[in-house]
Design goal:
Elements (H helix, E strand, L loop, with lengths): L3 E5 L8 E7 L3 H6 L11 E7 L2 E11 L10 E7 L2 H12 L4 E3 L4 H8 L5 H12 L3 H11 L2 H25 L10 H20 L1 H9 L1 E7 L5 H9 L17 E7 L2 E7 L9 H16 L2 E6 L15 E4 L15 E2 L8 H16 L8 H21 L6 H19 L5 H8 L7
Parallel strand pairs: 1-6, 7-9, 7-10, 10-11, 11-12
Antiparallel strand pairs: 1-2, 2-5, 3-4, 4-5, 8-9
Helix pairs in contact: 4-5, 6-7, 6-13, 7-12, 12-13
Length: 433
C-alpha cells in the first residue's frame, strides 16, 4: 500500500503562517484523528486536538484523489507559525500509524508519477524555487505551466500524421493509393526539423537566463577595473590600489540587471609579464573573458589590448573619465569613472540592452538535457528525409526513423528512460516540496 507522507511545506522558523502538507491514502483519516474533516476544496477553520490536548486552531484544506498537487488524497494545515506549534503538530502526525515524514522532493515526485506533471514541469518548478530575477521567474513559470509539453504535443501531431500517411502506403502496397502522400510527408518532416533545430539553438540563451550571464571587465593593469566593479556592486567587492597587478584572481559579483541575473568579473590586468604568479592570473583572465557573454574593454590609453580581441556585442569603454581627456583615435562606446560614478548607470543600461536583445532568441527548452533529446529527434528526421530523396525509398526505414524521433520526444518529457535523472533532480528540492 502506498505510504502517506507529511512535511512542513513552508519555510522553517517563526512565521505568521506555517503550512503542513499531508498526502496519501490516509491523509483524510489523519486529519479526522485531530478534527472533523471539512468538505473538499473549501477552506475551513478547525481546532486540532491530539490525545486530548489542543494543538492549534488552523485553516484546513482537503483535496480528493485526482484533485490535488500530487494527484493523491491530500490535506493542508495552515497553522500559526510558531516553532512550538509546528513541532507539536508534526509530533502528532509522527505518532499516527501509517504515516511517515516526506523525503526531499517527494511530493513533486508523486505528482510526476501520477501524471500531474511531466519532467519538464518538475524542472520548471525547481527553477522557479531557485529564481532570483524577473527573467528567471517568467521563464520558470512558462515551463511549469506546461509550455514545453504543449510544444512537444504539436511536434508529435506532425509525426503521427506523417507516420499515418506512410502506414497507408505500407498497408496498401499491392493496391493503388489514390494520392501520392510523399510530398506531404516530406513537407511535414522538413517543417518539423526546422522547428526542432531552432529550439535547440535557443537552449544556450535559455540556460543563460536560468544560470545567469557573465560580463568580464578586461583591460591593462591599473586601468580601473576593480574600481568599476565596486561601482557596479555599490560596495567594495574588490581591493583597489595604485599598484599595478593588485588583482591576481577573478573576482565575481552577481547582480540583478533589469531582471537578468548577471555576474560581473573583475580580471587581472592584461600584459606580458615574467612574474609567474601574475602570469597565471593573466591566463585565467583570458580564459574567463573568452568564455564570457560580453567583455567590457576598459581603456586608459591609446594602445589596444592585444591579448584579447573584441567581438560583436563587446563594449569599448574609456575609463577614469573624471581625470583623462579623450585619448588617441580609439572609438569609445562609453566613458565611465568608477570613482565618481560618471557614466556607470549608462554602461549598465548598455549591458542590459545587449543581453536583453539576446534573450529574444531563447528557446522554450531550458536545459542541455532538452537539447540532447531534440537533437536525437533531428538526427532521426534527417535520416528519414534522406531516405525519402532516394529514387526507390524504403518506407519501412522512414517509418522506423519516425518512431525513433517520437521516442526522443518521450524522453524529453520524462515519460520513458529517465529514471537515472530523477535522483539528481529531486536532490535540489526542499523537504516540503
Amino acid at each position: 500500500m502506498l505510504e502517506t507522507i507529511y512535511a512542513l511545506a513552508s519555510a522553517r522558523g517563526k512565521a505568521g503562517v506555517s503550512v503542513i502538507r499531508i498526502s496519501g491514502p490516509m491523509a483524510h483519516k489523519a486529519l479526522g484523528l485531530m478534527a472533523s474533516v471539512p468538505k473538499t476544496r473549501r477552506a475551513s477553520v478547525r481546532k486540532l486536538h491530539w490525545q486530548g490536548v489542543l494543538l492549534d486552531e488552523a485553516l484546513v484544506l482537503v483535496f480528493d484523489e485526482g484533485a490535488s498537487f500530487t494527484g493523491e488524497a491530500s490535506v493542508e494545515l495552515h497553522l500559526h507559525g510558531g516553532r512550538a506549534v509546528v513541532a507539536a503538530v508534526l509530533g502528532a502526525l509522527a505518532e499516527m500509524e501509517g504515516l511517515r515524514p516526506a523525503e526531499a522532493g517527494e511530493f513533486t515526485r508523486r505528482a510526476l508519477e501520477n501524471g500531474c506533471l511531466d519532467l519538464t514541469q518538475v524542472e520548471g518548478l525547481a527553477d522557479l524555487i531557485d529564481s532570483e530575477t524577473e527573467a528567471q521567474r517568467v521563464q520558470s513559470i512558462r515551463v511549469l505551466s506546461g509550455a514545453i509539453g504543449k510544444t512537444v504535443e504539436r511536434w508529435r501531431r506532425d509525426l503521427v500524421r506523417a507516420a499515418a500517411l506512410l502506414e497507408a502506403t505500407i498497408d496498401f502496397v499491392d493496391e493503388d493509393v489514390p494520392v501520392d502522400v510523399m510530398p506531404e510527408v516530406q513537407a511535414l518532416l522538413e517543417g518539423l526539423s526546422r522547428d526542432l533545430k531552432r529550439e535547440a539553438e535557443g537552449v544556450k540563451i535559455a540556460e543563460r537566463i536560468r544560470d545567469g550571464f557573465e560580463v568580464a571587465i578586461v583591460g591593462r593593469p591599473n586601468a580601473g577595473k576593480s574600481t568599476l566593479l565596486n561601482a557596479f556592486a555599490g560596495r567594495q567587492a574588490a581591493i583597489t590600489s595604485e599598484i599595478a597587478g593588485t588583482t591576481r584572481d577573478v573576482i565575481e559579483v552577481r547582480m540583478d540587471v533589469d531582471g537578468l541575473a548577471v555576474t560581473f568579473l573583475d580580471t587581472a590586468g592584461l600584459r606580458d609579464t615574467d612574474n609567474k604568479i601574475e602570469a597565471l592570473g593573466v591566463d585565467l583572465a583570458i580564459e574567463r573573458a573568452n568564455a564570457a557573454d560580453i567583455r567590457i574593454f576598459l581603456m586608459d590609453g591609446d594602445k589596444e589590448i592585444c591579448l584579447i580581441k573584441p567581438q560583436i556585442g563587446d563594449l569599448i569603454v574609456r575609463g577614469k573619465a573624471d581625470t583623462v581627456e579623450k585619448i588617441g583615435d580609439i572609438r569609445y562606446d562609453h566613458s565611465v569613472s568608477g570613482l565618481t560614478g560618471q557614466g556607470v548607470s549608462q554602461l549598465l543600461a548598455a549591458v542590459s540592452k545587449t543581453l536583453s536583445s539576446r534573450t529574444a532568441a531563447a528557446s522554450v527548452l531550458t536545459r542541455e538535457r532538452h537539447r540532447i533529446a531534440i537533437l536525437g529527434a533531428v538526427r532521426a528526421l534527417d535520416v528519414a528525409m534522406a531516405e525519402l530523396q532516394q529514387p526507390m525509398p524504403v518506407v519501412e526505414v522512414v517509418a522506423e526513423e519516425l518512431r525513433t524521433a517520437s521516442y526522443a520526444l518521450e524522453v524529453l518529457l520524462g515519460k520513458i528512460d529517465v529514471e537515472t535523472l530523477l535522483g539528481e533532480i529531486f536532490a535540489s528540492f526542499c523537504i516540503g516540496k
